[in-house]
Amino acid sequence: MTNVNRIVRLGLVNAYLAHEDDGLTLIDTMLGGSADKIIAAAEASGAPIVRIVLTHAHGDHVGSLDALRQRLPEAEVIISTREARLLAKDMTLDPDEPQEKLRGGYPGAKTKPDRTVDAGHRVGSLEVIATPGHTPGHVAFLDVRDRTIYCGDVYSTLGGVATSAKVNPVMPLALFTWHRPTELESARTLRALEPARLAPGHGKVIESPLEAMDRALARAS
Ligand SMILES: [Zn+2]
């Protein structure tokens, strides 16, 4: 039995609904135009979306945020403190961050987060894990009930488990990665948490992913 409910568009882009006692937590919002599909999935599971949490501010993760805010005004919107700046289209880097070019699309959103979170904070059953590198404020979410990790773009599983620190021809997320050494460290952080299940932003959910994560880390090192 798992709490994981994956929603897919174009066979490429995922969002997830995590079931909680008070309703559903939506993890990421996919591309623009995905609100209908997400709301239909929530209705099919018989519970309201009460929270929207975001792994990072790339357009294929925040694209339907504004539409969902309009349709679900009661849902609390949550993003990491660092990534909130990118959601507001503040593209500045901090002096202590790698001074690398931000890559990939950051469309921003009109929606202001209701809450910002940092490493160790909880969103329902989900623990916030700092996983910078793909973007400066990327976070993953560990469901402490079943050790599912919603890893955003730290790993993808399209064409096999891979980090976004090294270009995978099937899903070249690394082209949109801000700082590959930092991303690789974050990929190691998630492996060390020994997830029972890896639920990525792109690709299918992988059960018992540790060996596949080890191979991906070895390839990227
Ligand atoms: Zn991304």
Topology as H/E string?
EEEHEHHEHEEEEEEEHEEH
> Uncertain runs with pLDDT below 50, 5 residues or more?
none
Distance between the termini: 34 Å
User: How confident overall, as mean pLDDT?
Assistant: 96
Q: Oligomeric state of the chains?
A: single chain
Q: Tally the beta strands.
A: 14
SS element count, helices: 6
What is the helical fraction, as a range of percent?
10-25%
Major β-sheet profile: 6 strands, mixed
Q: What's the alpha carbon Rg, rounded to whole Å?
A: 16 Å
Shape: globular
Which ligands are bound? zinc ion
Strand numbers in spatial order across the main sheet: 1-2-3-4-5-6
Percentage of residues in strands: 25-35%
Structural class: alpha/beta
Short account of what is shown:
The protein is built from six helices and 14 strands.
Describe the structure.
By secondary structure, the protein is of the alpha/beta class. Helices cover 24% and strands 27% of the residues. The protein has six helices and 14 strands. The chain has helices at residues 35-45, 59-62, 65-71, 81-87, 180-192, 210-220, and strands at 4-9, 13-20, 23-27, 49-53, 76-80, 115-117, 122-123, 126-130, 139-143, 148-152, 155-156, 162-163, 197-200, 206-207. The strands form three sheets. Strands 1-2-3-4-5-6 form a six-stranded mixed beta sheet. It has a six-stranded mixed beta sheet with strand order 7-8-9-10-13-14, with no helix packed on it. Strand 3 (23-27), helix 1 (35-45) and strand 4 (49-53) form a beta-alpha-beta unit. The structure holds zinc ion (ZN). Residues 56, 58, 104, 134, 153, 176 line the site of zinc ion.
